[in-house]
Design a protein that fits this description.
Blueprint: E1 2-5, E2 8-16, E3 23-41, E4 47-69, E5 79-81, E6 89-101, E7 104-113, E8 134-142
Antiparallel strand pairs: 1-3, 2-3, 3-4, 4-5, 4-6, 6-7, 7-8
């Protein structure tokens, strides 16, 4: 058993279904993410499989909506900054597994978003829709 703190740059996003085939709209959100994982390693030798779980805090760096409409020049509306409309922190729960081969690691993990990304606008009355992140990550890296 071990504790594995990490510092990651993570890009998340989504495609928005507008209901129109000629409209393509995507959300791009960038985070600095700090997971702290409880890791259980198994076996002996150079290849050690492992399982892990733990919280992750994401710090919002940028958030943009990029839209294109077939045959139309949207100008400045093609990319809209939406960072001010989102909460600056995102809390998630990471679960996954992998294998450590010497200093190299291969992992598959899923992050379940626990926070509502939407900021409630000042003066807004009513329930804001809950939007949260969920991400499947396949990672390769080097530990040090």
């Amino acid at each position: 058993m071990s504790i594995q703190p990490e510092l990651l740059y993570v890009q998340k996003g989504a495609k928005i279904d507008t209901g129109f085939d000629e409209v393509d709209s995507k959300v791009h959100i960038d985070y600095i993410e700090i997971p702290v994982l409880l890791k259980a390693s198994f076996g002996a030798g150079s290849a050690k499989p492992n399982l892990f779980v733990g919280p992750a805090i994401g710090i919002l760096m940028s958030a943009k909506v990029k839209t294109s409409v077939e045959g139309v020049d949207l100008g400045d509306l093609a990319e809209v900054d939406m960072k001010d409309e989102l909460n600056s922190m995102d809390l998630g729960l990471v679960i996954g597994g992998g294998v450590d081969i010497g200093k190299m690691l291969l992992e598959v993990r899923y992050e379940i978003g626990l926070s509502n990304l939407n900021k409630t606008p000042e003066g807004y009355e009513g329930d804001m829709p809950k939007t949260s992140n969920g991400a499947l990550l396949i990672m390769a890296g080097i530990s040090f």
